[in-house]
Amino acid sequence: MSASVQILQKIFGYQAFRGFQAEVIEAVTRGEDALVLMPTGGGKSLCYQIPALMRDGVAIVVSPLIALMKDQVDMLEDLGISAAYLNSSQTSEESQSVIESLFRGDVSLLYVAPERLMTSRMLAMIEQLPISLFAFDEAHCISIWGHDFRPDYGELTQIKERFPHIPRIALTATADPQTREEIAERLLINPKRFIASFDRPNIRYRMVEKTKGYLDEVADFITGEHMHESGIIYCLSRRKTEQVAQELQNRGVDALVYHAGLDQWERESNQNQFYERPCVMVATIAFGMGIDKPDVRYVIHLDMPKSIENYFQETGRAGRDGLPAEAVLYYGLEDVVQQRRLIDMSEAEDDYRLVMMAKLDAMLALAEDSGCRRERLLDYFGESTKHCDNCDNCENPPMTKDVTIEAQKLLSCVHRCYQTNGLGFGAGHVIDVLMGERNEKVLARGHDRLSTWGIGQGLSAKFWRKVLRQLIIKHYIQVRYELRNVLSLTGKARALLRGEESFFVRVEGMKKLSTRKALEHDDLNEDETRLFNELRAWRREAAQEAGKPPYLIFPDATLLQIAKLKPKTPEALMSVSGVGEKKFERYADAIFSMVAEY
Ligand code: ADP
Ligand code: ZN
To answer: Which of 12, 23, 289 to probe ligand 1 with, by most ligand atoms within 8 A of CB?
Structure first.
């Protein structure tokens, strides 16, 4: 057995390496540079943690996530690995004591934020220490074109110049080919590339149009099949997170709020509660980077994410334990308008704005697509796959409908309204005219005399909004954000109006959100389910006693296996994934006695 497998089994308690973990570990341990792309939950951490244990000296792990350093260090210490961190949350006594243990050679892994690492003091110190490797976590932060650019990461390019002989490993869960090359070029020297499949087969993707009662639907989804589970709900604005949390609470949901506007105390307290009990976090995307809770069972978006990268990363926080999880996106016309306005109004450079616009369009197109979600998602990351049977479009194929004539009516109506004032009118008004409404504004403008007034009668406003949204997404109609979102035609509209092009929309396939149990305990019989519940109750107490979140004691996946296997010997218990030597020492007695009762 190789030394790395021994470490994996004895210290981490896992039976076998996943994907190309073994190859990465071998390359880095040998002293080579590595670029590692794996989806969230793929197991990136082991790729540098094990080489750190196999090579002499201390591994420097660069991470932008100060808030998570403590958790990571706690988890390693829990496994009997000596780790430490240096960041701005510490007192100078605390960092002094870390520095002393570094010089004693007592530390295998040191976590540090990029801005701290690049101080001249820190660099000078590192030059005097034996270093085993540098690991750059969330390495996509170095790319200006990525979606998470952090200026501090730019400085890290100096590392390979100052320490050319020390192996480096850069890790990320999101990178299109361009970002990937930028990481390789700026952080690494001749890296070996390890690019995993981005597929997350246990996540079921669904994208639904927002209707009036969508919050009721969400509440049913949570209080029904996901009652004792954790989830995240993403909203675009701080205000909306608070409104949604309130409305969900009114509907009996245990909902917390997280956004950057809360004071630090409240943010931390809510985050801790999220780790401690099954509940829902209603949050802006400020909540997320590095959420490593493995048993998040669903992620719901109530607003359109900015890009497919964002969507993929945010939904990727569900189901890191590999058990079934749900990703549900609600979207509507106002999302398109709102997001495009945000980009339009941003201070960014023009070509950067174009990139943002294109990324948003790709996301919008994904939502409206009739094909397999997974196929489209992976295709975006340059990977091909067969359709998956685990997304709304596979389970319930939507139909596409030729709506060329309707699209022409809508385009004409936008144009007729536009001609009356040379600026245009908003979506609501245009649809009113099209549907032959005689409300105050229509009459005041004399729009009931337009040739397009009433030519859309007989179809619902919802239908027209759908066609309109499609026409906006596909750039037949432009929205002028600076003028209260008025609509006008683009040059592209002409061909469609002349009938030289056809226009299709998807008509709904999916009906209901709640269709099955997210966590399949199905293969546990009644006794085993009781044992599982008892193990969970025990875990909660053990966690409280240790002052740690429950999943740090054991994740659900481990408890499920114990309930199924009912191990009675040390060998049997050690064979369960997630039970290593330290955990065995600590918890074996308690587990044996619970199992014995069954
Ligand atoms: P990432 O950083 O890629 O998002 P992590 O390194 O946090 O993922 O790993 C995700 C989960 O998978 C963790 O709970 C981790 O302990 C577990 N894991 C990693 N490698 C293995 C393995 N070879 N066998 C079983 N579980 C693993
Ligand atoms: Zn599918």
So the answer is: 12
Q: Which residue has the least CA distance to atom 10 on ligand 1?
A: 41
- Choose among 41, 44, 552: nearest CA to 327: 41
Query: For the chain, first and last CA: distance in Å?
Result: 35
Closest atom of ligand 1 relative to the 577 alpha carbon: 25
Would you put residue 190 in left (φ > 0), alpha (ψ -120 to 50) or beta?
left
Ligand 1 residue neighbourhood (C-beta within 6 Å): 14, 17-18, 21, 38, 40-46, 292, 294, 320, 577
Location of structure tokens 């820190």: 122
**Who surrounds ion ligand 2 at CB < 5 A?**
372, 374, 387-388, 391, 394
Would you give the DSSP letter of residue 594? H
Separation of CA 378 and ligand 2 centre (Å): 11
DSSP 8: I
Q: Which stretch of DSSP H or E encloses residue 488? A: strand 486-489
Pick from 317, 315, 281: which is nearest to 206 by CA?
315
Task: Give the C-alpha distances (Å, rounded to integers) separating 253 from 258, 267, 287, 584.
Answer: 16, 19, 19, 36
The residue assigned the tokens 């604005």 is 237
Looking at the whole model, is its pTM more than 0.85?
no
In contact, 152 and 113? CB cutoff 8 Å: yes
Measured in Å, residue 377 CA sits from the centre of ligand 2 at 10
> Is the pLDDT higher at 437 or at 178?
437
Q: Are strands 504-507 and 399-402 parallel, antiparallel or unpaired?
A: antiparallel
The residue nearest atom 20 of ligand 1, judged by CA position, is 43
Give distance in angstroms: CA of 457 to centre of ligand 2: 36
CA 209 to CA 471: how far, in whole Å?
16
Q: Please, are residues 202 and 325 in contact by the beta-carbon 8 Å criterion?
A: yes
CA–CA distance, 443 with 31 (Å, rounded to integer): 76
Q: Whose CA is nearest to atom 18 of ligand 1?
A: 43
Rounded distance between C-alpha atoms, residue 155 and residue 169, angstroms: 16
> For residue range 85-106, what is the model confidence (pLDDT) as tens digits?
999 888 999 999 999 999 999 9
Q: Which is the closest atom of ligand 1 to the Cα of 47?
A: 6
User: For the residues 523-543, what does the mean pLDDT come to?
Assistant: 85
Q: Ligand nearest 313 Cα, by number?
A: 1
Task: Give pLDDT tens digits for 223-265.
Answer: 887 878 899 999 999 999 999 999 999 999 999 999 999 999 9
Whether the CB-CB separation of 285 and 310 falls below 8 Å is answered with: yes
